């Protein structure tokens, strides 16, 4: 079931990536929902995903706090 939640989170983040504020809000929700080891996978995915979308780089501050 955990992979399902991680995949769902990634799909939501992909869908809202057009808006940095919305992306940040969804990322904050994901942090509250996912387990610590899932967050590690999400961090790696986010680093790859935001390479293509530099406007979202500022949202990554949320995962480091």
Describe the overall structure:
The chain starts with a helix and ends in a 14-residue tail after the last helix. It has one domain. With 65 residues, it is mainly alpha-helical.
Name some characteristics of this structure.
mainly alpha; 65 residues; 3 helices
Q: Nutshell version of this structure?
A:
It contains 3 helices and no strands. It has 65 residues and is an all-alpha fold. It has one domain.
The DSSP helix count reads 3
Estimate nothing, just give the exact number of structural domains: 1
The total count of strands amounts to 0
Q: State the end-to-end distance.
A: 26 Å
Work out the radius of gyration.
11 Å
Spans with pLDDT under 50 lasting ≥5 residues?
none
From the spread of the alpha carbons, the general shape counts as: globular
The H-and-E topology, N to C, reads as: HHH
Largest sheet: none
Strand content: under 5%
What's the mean pLDDT score?
A: 91
Structural class: mainly alpha
Indicate the percent of residues in helices: 55-70%
What are the SSEs and their pairings?
Elements: H1 2-15, H2 20-33, H3 36-51
């Amino acid at each position: 079931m955990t992979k399902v939640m991680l995949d769902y989170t990634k799909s939501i983040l992909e869908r809202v990536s057009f808006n940095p504020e919305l992306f940040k809000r969804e990322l904050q929700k994901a942090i509250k929902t996912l387990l610590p080891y899932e967050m590690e996978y999400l961090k790696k995915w986010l680093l790859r995903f935001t390479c293509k979308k530099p406007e979202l780089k500022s949202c990554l501050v949320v995962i480091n706090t």
